[in-house]
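Changelog-adjacent note: as of this version, every example in the card shows the full chain rather than a window. The one below runs 243 residues end to end.
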Amino acid sequence: RCHHRSVAMPDIPFPTFCAFLGSLGLLCVALVGAWCQHWRGGFSLDGGSRTFNWHPVLMVTGLVVLYGAAALVYRIPSTWSGPKLPWKLLHGGLALGAFVLTVLGLAAVFRFHNSHGTPNMYSLHSWMGLGTVLLFSCQWAAGFGVFLLPWAPAWLRELYKPIHVFFGSTILMLSAASCVSGINEKLFFSLKNGTTEYKLLPAEAVFANTLGILILLFGVLVVAALARPSWKRPDSDSLDSRQ
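Full-length structure tokens:
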């Protein structure tokens, strides 16, 4: 007789994972701020290069970290019982905050380009980034209309829910990829004349490359948490939910 044993993954407590992920997100925000402050000259609103520095900080904070936090709201066990409306408002509010920061980040880079006569929307990074923001806008509007407003019928919510979840993970990974490509593009533009070239891997390149890896790690861990069955909210008709 053959005995088949299923190999189970270690059951990491969600609060522990969430604390680690929150620390990682804060680290990403701190590192992108330190990069712009130490190597790129700091921040201002005068339309110069220091205005551009708001762009990476706001995009990483909003489109990656805050958006990732919004995606994980329904993985918190305390959201699995009781009224769902407060958690819907928190989920939508975090996503809206991420969207506001993202729009401000776009405004910073467009102002910088226009002040210096630099063309807008010519690079792969800009195409990917703007496409991600537009998809994010549609995702938020559709989620608001279907899940938060009371007139959507139950069958429509059931139909749209897996689509909403799929695009939520997709947008997060596109956001991380856009941020990483933006970091790489900035290094290529900045580390050339009068500085140590990028290919020689100066300290700034090592720092920014590390930041990019951490951003990707944050996105992957959020998507992994969303896909973990034991952390998913039980269906409303399941035995666990009724209990």
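Structural remarks: The two ends are 38 Å apart (CA to CA).
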